[in-house]
């Protein structure tokens, strides 16, 4: 992380992996704006929940968070398993280069298999 940019970058979102809490976090400056929770399994990253704080909604942070979390997962060589509806929608709408995806079978999937 480049500390020399300091306060000038406080409005720029940064995404980090918080392995201790099993989630990717997006911050604006020092403020946590959202997160994408995951569970790790051998060779897989199961995304379970994504949330952006209501104070930060409408700023385009969720797709930034998803893109960077998924890119990091691809770089690690893990298969993406999108249980989180937001991550699943993101993957259906956006190309994630090099992604290996295992689509879970959800018994009560309200979106149905044809959701886009």
From TrEMBL:
Protein name: N-acetyltransferase domain-containing protein
Source organism, top-level taxon: Bacteria
Pfam families recorded: Acetyltransf_CG
InterPro entries assigned: Acyl_CoA_acyltransferase, Gcn5-rel_NAT, GNAT_YJDJ
Source organism: Microbacterium aerolatum
PANTHER family documented for this protein: BSR4717 PROTEIN (PTHR31435:SF10), PROTEIN NATD1 (PTHR31435)
Domain N-acetyltransferase: 16-103
Disordered: annotated span: 1-22
């Amino acid at each position: 992380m480049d500390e020399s940019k300091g306060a000038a970058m406080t409005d720029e979102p940064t995404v980090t992996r918080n392995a201790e809490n099993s989630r990717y976090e997006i911050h604006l400056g020092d403020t946590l704006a959202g997160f994408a929770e995951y569970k790790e399994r051998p060779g897989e990253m199961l995304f379970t929940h994504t949330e952006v704080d209501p104070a930060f909604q409408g700023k385009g942070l969720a797709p930034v968070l998803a893109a960077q979390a998924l890119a990091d997962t691809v770089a690690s060589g893990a298969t993406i398993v999108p249980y989180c509806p937001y991550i699943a929608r993101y993957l259906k709408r956006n190309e994630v280069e090099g992604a290996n995806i295992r689509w879970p079978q959800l018994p009560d999937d309200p979106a149905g298999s044809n959701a886009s």
